Amino acid sequence: MSIRVDAAGALVTQGGHSLMPGVEALTNRAIEALTGTQKSAADAIREELGAGANIETILTRIRLLQQALGRAQVQGLDSEGYKALGAEVCKKIGEVVGAKLPKERNAYTELVSWVSGTMRAHAVEIFTTNYDLLFEEAFERSRSSYFDGFTGGHAPFFDPVSVASDDLPPRWSRLWKLHGSLGWALEGESVVRGRGRDAAQLVYPDHLKYELTQKQPYSALFERLRQFLLTPDSLLLTTGFSFRDAHICAVLDEALAMNANASVMAFQYMPLASEEPACKLAYDRPNLSVYAADGAVIGGVKGSWRLGDPPKNWEEIRATFWGLRAPKEPAGFLLGDFAMFTRFCALAQATDLSNQSASLAIVEAGIDGVGGAAANAEGQQQ
After folding, report:
1. Is the pLDDT of residue 9 over 70?
2. What is the pLDDT of residue 94?
3. H helices of 217-319, where?
């Protein structure tokens, strides 16, 4: 959503539209693309669910009707009709998230530049719930090696042993698609990759999501997330994650409780009051910190940001993560915006910030303590 493109898919700095829609826009586009009786049934479900209806609640209701109806009909559809409706909605979701990465340098290419631009003792692992192929395009555009759990040439198959063993060279980044991906297809008893954007063996957002994640390849991918967090001194940075996925939060909660030496830094776009799911987990697990636009939860303590006097030469550094997100908005913490977070990473090794745009430059360090912007809890927490 942080990447803006024009009608031709070219990157723009102002105007345009989001490369990928948010939940509300995704709901509108998936439902409006339906026709006939399917459209009428989906509209009726949406109206019945009220103002809080979204693609997840609508799909949940569709699947419940599919299981319950048999030959009886509701809104002109029986059990098989709602099964077809659910499949059609999922197809529309796949079409919406099938957008291609802009040709210009963008947030994804900058993040991949940072990931692959340094010799590392341990590989960087990317866990994503998104279905799109944007990370894959960015890695391949930069000719950077990555492993996504599949192996083979003609019909690459998912290999849980390689996922679990983690014995590839550190220069190979890991890309784990926790909810599946475009291009995945079920052939026989195996999930294979490389079947084009129309193939989508996804964990779609509905009430079956938890059940589906207990099956391969999803069980191996979730176990990989658990093992990563159980590794001593591991650090997980989250961006664009709402913490509303109960099955993912359960993994985070359990692993952080078991491994006090692991840390999670959650960079959230919205004000702290709108990030309650993330804050709730941070209150229970002090090794998870939430950094929101107007405040933070650090060590289980909630507070608002308070600007202090920066150390010497920190004015440019602070401008890389603190400032105006939009002309009419108050200044705040910027790294909850995915594009600014990736620019921060991409320029992490810059030694001269004076030539960089104030809102986009970055430097190594500066996140913990954020250069004079500190969390103020009852005037004490710094």
Report:
1. yes
2. 82
3. 218-230, 246-258, 276-284, 315-318
Which pLDDT tens digit goes with each residue over 303-331? 999 888 878 778 888 888 999 887 888 88
Helices (H), 145-274: 160-165, 209-212, 218-230, 246-258
User: Helix (H) and strand (E) counts for the chain?
Assistant: 13, 17
How do strand 173-177 and strand 146-147 relate by DSSP bridges?
parallel
Nearest to 290 by CA among 333, 331, 251: 333
Please state the domain extents for the chain. Answer: 21-96, 99-230, 236-243+267-382
- Dihedral angle over CA of 225, 228, 234, 239, nearest 10: -20
The DSSP call for residue 239 is E
Q: Are 70 and 117 a contacting pair, CB within 8 Å?
A: no
State pLDDT tens for residues 204-220: 655 566 566 567 788 88
User: Measured between alpha carbons, how far is 160 from 238 in angstroms, rounded to an integer?
Assistant: 24
**pLDDT exceeds cutoff 60 at 380:** no
The pLDDT confidence band at residue 382, using thresholds 50, 70 and 90, is: very low
From 27, 29, 23, 181, select the one nearest 98 (Cα to Cα). 181
**Measuring CA to CA, which residue among 368, 377, 365 is closest to residue 306?**
377
- What CA–CA distance (Å, rounded) separates 222 from 225? 5
